[in-house]
Amino acid sequence: MEKSIYSGNYAYLIHILVRKRKQYDISQIALANSLGKPQSFISKIEIRERRLDVIEFIEICFALGINPKTVFNELIDNWIINR
What we know:
This protein is an all-alpha fold. Helices cover about 65% and strands about 0% of the residues. It contains five helices and no strands. α1 crosses α5 (about 70-75) and α2 crosses α3 (about 40-45). It is globular and about 35 Å long. The model has no long low-confidence stretch (mean pLDDT about 95).
């Protein structure tokens, strides 16, 4: 089993978050500031250099003004079964 950070499903999760951030015209800097983090925190997550934990995922969703359940449901609806 590959590390989740390299999986297609993890890539899709990050894709959703980046798409939502851009859809709401929120910069990496603005998002990072709202979380009390440096811009590099968001950049490293978005380029999959840093793994996002579930608490950070929820905090990022709320900072973007979106319900984490919505993102999670989209991820599940597009889940890739690894065989």
